[in-house]
Design a protein that fits this description.
Elements lengths: L3 H14 L5 E6 L10 H8 L4 E3 L10 E3 L2 H8 L3 E11 L4 E8 L3
Antiparallel strand pairs: 1-5, 2-3, 4-5
């Protein structure tokens, strides 16, 4: 529910405060939510781009951020090892699950 800039800020802050080899569990809107996107947005998603909807409502549930697995691996997970990825793994929220571990320096 955050813009790209705020996502980058918060993932950096979480990485900063997490101890070395500490774990971070995140959920994202992924392929299980493609039906919510327009055909243009779906094309951007399928090409590996982050899709933000209603960014004027950032920080609320109205703002939607849709993360292709490739985008998370190449961007949000920098400085982390991806321990596990489960598409649609958060069943109650129908979201993808990533378990990340902070890399040791």
């Amino acid at each position: 529910h955050l813009t790209r800039e705020l996502q980058n800020f918060w993932i950096s802050e979480l990485r900063r405060v997490l101890k070395p080899s500490g774990f971070l569990f995140i959920t994202t809107h992924g392929t299980t939510r493609l039906h919510q996107l327009s055909s243009e947005e779906r094309e951007r998603f399928e090409s590996g781009q982050l899709v933000i909807r209603y960014n004027e409502y950032v920080g609320t549930n109205i703002c939607g951020a849709y993360h292709p697995e490739q985008y998370v691996r190449q961007n949000l997970a920098k400085g982390f090892t991806i321990i596990d990825f489960i598409p649609g793994g958060a069943k109650d929220a129908n979201q993808d699950v990533f378990l990340l571990m902070k890399m040791t320096m």
